[in-house]
C-alpha cells in the first residue's frame, strides 16, 4: 500500500538540528555582536550631536514621549524599579527562552527564525558603527532627562552605565543607542509567540512584551522613540534578507565539503572507472592494464604442460576403471 502524507504536513529540515551545534553558533554570534558593539565606539561629541538631532526631529513631529514617561518613572519608584529590572534582564532571558522553545517544539521553523534574529542583529551593529548616538540619560541635565538606572541602582546589580553590572561600565558602549535592539528583539519574540504560540496567553504576551519594552526603553531614558522605530525597521530588513541568507548558507554547506573531500570508493565516477576496466579486460587477452605475457612465461604456481604439441589428452577417462564404458567409435 502506498504511503501518503497528511495534507498540510511540512517537510523536515534536510539536516537534523542538534543543540550542541546550535548553542555554540548562537554564543559565537552574540560574542561577535558584543565585541563589535564595544569596538565601534565613536566620538562622544558626534554621538551627542546625533542624539540632539533625533530629539529635535521628535519635537518637530510631536513624537517626544520620552519626557513624560521619564518623569513618571523618576517620580514613582513602584514603576521605575520594575522598569529598570525589565530593561536590564528580560532581553537576556526572554529571547533565549523563545529560541529554545522554537528549537524543541517548532524545529521546522526554527532555522528561519534563528537566521532572521542573527541577520537583524548584525544589521543593528552596522547602525551602531555608522551612527553612534548619545542616549537621553547621558545628555546634559538641562535637557530634562533623569537616568533611572543610576537613580535606582541600589535596587539591582547595575550601576550608572545602563544595564552593565556595577563596576563594569567600561566594558560596554553606552553610545550604541540607534537602533534599539531591545525593541527589535522584543518584536521578534512577539512575532514568534503570535505565529506559533497557539494559545490566548501567548497572543497577549506577543503584544504586551514588545509594547512594554518600547515604553520601558523610553521611560528609563535609554532610547528615543525613533530608536525604537529604527529597531523595528532593522527587524523588517532582516526578515526580507533571511531567505537569501538561508539559500547562501545552504549552498556553502553543500558545496564546500564536496570541493575538499576525496573521491569516495563508491562514488559514481569511481564505479564507472571500475566498470570500464572490467569491460576492456573481458574482450581481450591483455591483463593488468594492457600488459601481455610472453611465450613460455608462466604465472606463479602455474602447473607445467605435460603433453607435447598436438598431443591433447583423451577426453575419455580411460583410467576411470573397468566398469566405465568406452566411447563410441
Question: What does this protein structure show overall?
Answer:
It is a single chain. The relative contact order is 0.11. Mean pLDDT is 76; it is low at 1-13, 273-289 and 315-329. By secondary structure, this protein is an all-alpha fold. The longest helix is centred in the last third of the chain and has 36 residues, at 225-260. The protein starts with 18 loop residues before the first helix and ends in a 47-residue tail after the last helix. It has ten helices and no strands. The protein is 58% helix and 0% strand. It has helices at 19-39, 44-60, 66-75, 77-105, 107-130, 148-151, 181-196, 200-219, 225-260, 268-282.
Question: Which keywords apply here?
Answer:
mainly alpha; disordered C terminus; 329 residues
Estimated share of beta-strand residues = under 5%
Radius of gyration (CA) equals 38 Å
* Number of helical stretches of at least 4 residues: 10
Helix content: 55-70%
Q: What is the SS-derived class? A: mainly alpha
Mean pLDDT: 76
**What's the total count of β strands?**
0
Q: Globular, elongated, flat, extended or rod-shaped: what is the shape?
A: globular
How would a crystallographer describe the biggest sheet?
none
Query: What is the quaternary state of this protein?
Result: single chain
Distance between the termini: 65 Å
Poorly predicted regions are 1-13, 273-289, 315-329
Please write the string of helix (H) and strand (E) elements. HHHHHHHHHH
Amino acid at each position: 500500500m502506498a504511503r501518503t502524507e497528511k495534507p498540510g504536513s511540512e517537510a523536515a529540515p534536510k539536516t537534523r538540528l542538534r543543540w550542541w551545534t546550535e548553542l555554540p553558533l548562537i554564543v559565537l554570534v552574540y560574542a561577535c555582536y558584543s565585541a563589535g558593539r564595544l569596538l565601534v565606539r565613536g566620538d562622544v561629541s558626534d554621538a551627542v550631536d546625533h542624539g540632539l538631532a533625533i530629539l529635535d526631529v521628535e519635537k518637530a513631529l510631536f513624537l517626544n514621549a520620552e519626557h513624560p514617561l521619564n518623569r513618571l518613572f523618576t517620580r514613582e519608584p513602584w514603576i521605575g524599579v520594575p522598569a529598570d529590572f525589565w530593561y536590564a534582564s528580560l532581553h537576556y532571558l526572554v529571547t533565549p527562552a523563545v529560541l529554545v522553545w522554537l528549537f524543541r517544539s517548532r524545529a521546522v521553523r526554527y532555522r528561519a527564525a534563528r537566521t532572521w534574529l542573527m541577520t537583524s542583529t548584525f544589521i543593528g551593529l552596522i547602525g551602531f558603527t555608522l551612527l553612534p548616538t548619545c542616549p537621553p540619560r547621558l545628555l546634559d541635565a538641562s535637557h530634562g532627562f533623569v537616568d533611572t538606572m543610576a537613580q535606582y541602582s541600589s535596587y539591582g546589580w547595575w550601576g550608572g552605565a545602563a544595564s552593565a553590572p556595577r563596576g563594569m561600565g567600561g566594558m560596554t558602549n553606552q553610545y550604541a543607542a540607534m537602533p534599539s535592539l531591545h525593541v527589535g528583539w522584543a518584536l521578534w519574540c512577539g512575532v514568534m509567540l503570535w505565529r506559533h504560540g497557539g494559545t490566548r496567553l501567548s497572543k497577549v504576551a506577543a503584544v504586551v512584551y514588545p509594547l512594554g519594552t518600547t515604553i520601558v526603553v523610553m521611560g528609563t531614558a535609554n532610547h528615543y522613540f525613533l530608536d525604537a522605530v529604527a529597531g523595528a525597521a532593522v527587524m523588517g530588513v532582516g526578515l526580507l534578507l533571511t531567505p537569501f541568507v538561508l539559500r547562501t548558507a545552504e549552498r556553502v554547506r553543500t558545496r564546500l565539503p564536496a570541493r575538499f573531500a576525496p573521491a569516495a570508493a563508491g562514488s559514481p565516477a569511481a564505479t564507472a572507472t571500475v566498470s570500464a576496466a572490467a569491460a576492456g579486460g573481458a574482450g581481450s587477452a591483455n591483463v593488468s592494464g594492457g600488459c601481455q605475457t610472453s611465450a613460455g612465461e608462466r604465472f606463479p604456481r602455474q602447473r607445467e604442460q605435460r603433453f607435447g604439441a598436438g598431443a591433447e589428452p583423451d577426453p575419455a577417462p580411460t583410467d576411470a576403471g573397468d566398469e566405465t564404458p568406452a566411447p563410441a567409435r
